[in-house]
Structures are given as structure tokens and as C-alpha cells.
Amino acid sequence: MSEKLNLKPCPFCGAEAELLGVSAWYSVRCPSPITKCPIQPRMGMQRRPWETDDQLRAFLAEQWNTRADSGRDDARPDTCKAAEAAKEQA
Ligand SMILES: [Zn+2]
Description:
3-stranded antiparallel β-sheet, 2 helices, globular
């Protein structure tokens, strides 16, 4: 039906992330119980009318896979860069 999405593991416990879809609501989450992963990150979105389910799944996977330490400077919000620049000048 849809291609397998490549999800990175949970950044806090390393568990394999899972992508769930319930009607038009999709989410990516760490499936570990709280005893194994105290953070249990989770993100979800309602599918927008102009999107297909596959588009939303791909978008969520891309967002989930974005890591602050991935070395991609363009992945970080401008506010972070501005804060660091201000620190360097101080
Ligand atoms: Zn986890």
C-alpha cells in the first residue's frame, strides 16, 4: 500500500520509532514504556485537506528524523543561531 518509511530511532532510548495513523490523524512516537524511556517523545498532525496520507506520513518522518546534532546548520531555527551569535559577541 505504502512504501516503508525510514524512521530514525528514539533519540532518548534508541527504541525503534513507530508511525501510527488513525483516520486523518498521524503520529510518530517512541513506543517504549515509561520505565525504559522517561521522555517518550511523540509528535502528531492532522492531515490537511490538500494532502494525501502518504504525503503526511513522509512529512512526519522527515520531521522526526531531523536531529539537532545532525550537523545540518540549516535544520536549526534562526532563533538558535541568533542566540549563539549574541553569546559570541558578549
Ligand atoms: Zn524513547
